[in-house]
Amino acid sequence: MLVSGGAASATKLDTEVKIRSIAPNPVVVKDGEETAYFDVGASSDVEKVVLSVQPDVQTFKAAESKDVDHLRGWRFSVDFNENDYVGRWKATAVAYGKDNKELKRDEAFFAVEVVKGKAETRISRFDAGPSKVRKGKSIYFSGRLLVDDEGWEGVRGEKVNVYYRANGSSGWKWVASGKTRWGGKFYAKTRAWKSGTFKAVYEGNDELSGAESHRDYVRVYRSWHHR
Fold first, then answer.
1. In Å, what is the CA distance from 12 to each residue of 21, 26, 103, 144?
2. Do the domain assignments include residue 67?
3. Hey, which of 45, 65, 82, 89 has its CA 20 to 30 A from 53?
4. How many folded domains does the chain comprise?
5. Do residues 7 and 110 share a domain?
6. Predicted confidence (pLDDT) per residue in 133-175, tens digit
7. How far apart are the first and last CA of the chain?
8. What region does 225 belong to: left with phi over 0, alpha with psi -120 to 50, or beta?
9. Does some domain include residue 65?
């Protein structure tokens, strides 16, 4: 989309138009959107300035050209988001006279970068079992680590830690870890010593946020106390 600026009196024959600044440059998109500002200088014989911005690639689509908002004077703004082309862009300022005839144009280049936020994750179907177990026997853990990538799907190759809080204790203690497999499934085990609560925790990484499962209780008994 092209947006025109306001009029100026035609008192100068030596027409000039110049994109004086683009700020910020590069345009770094964080948290969804970033606005870039374009300051254009023009001589007094210029009646109108039209600014357009588009990716500087031969195969760009018309739909990839950005909407341009006119602010004051020869100043414009363009909003960029995480879906925009990442790389070099070209800005073109075109000056027009009273008869709407093109007088002069100027081009400038800038870069667009996208810093995407971490994808949301969650731990589902966490289970610590059996729910009743004799002291010294094994407790088995299982669950799934999922990521929201336009729909929830499993994450492979990530470490999930299992923590334990014994009855009467306020602190959590690490007891086991498991690496996620196909479909985000993970497995681990530990020995039973005292009744308590277990939870699975994923710490996250540069691209994925952390997650914590629901809590699962296991009762540990001595053989002569079990009924």
1. 23, 34, 12, 71
2. yes
3. 45
4. 2
5. yes
6. 999 999 999 999 999 988 999 999 999 999 999 999 999 999 9
7. 77
8. alpha
9. yes
Sequence-distant (≥ 6) Cβ neighbours of residue 138 within 8 angstroms: 189, 190, 191, 192
Boundary of a domain, candidates 115, 141, 158 = 115
Residue 226 placed within a domain: no
Give the residue carrying structure tokens 């948290």: 31
Distance from C-alpha of 147 to C-alpha of 150, rounded to nearest angstrom: 9
% of the chain with per-residue pLDDT over 70: 91
For the chain, give me the number of helices (H) and strands (E)? Answer: 0, 19
Q: Which domain holds residue 107?
A: 3-115
Residue type, position 14, single letter = D
User: How far is CA 11 from each of CA 5, 7, 50, 159, rounded to the nearest angstrom?
Assistant: 18, 12, 20, 71
Instruction: Please report whether residue 208 resides in a domain.
Output: yes
* Residue 9 pLDDT > 70: no
Tens-digit pLDDT profile for residues 187-207: 999 999 999 999 999 999 988
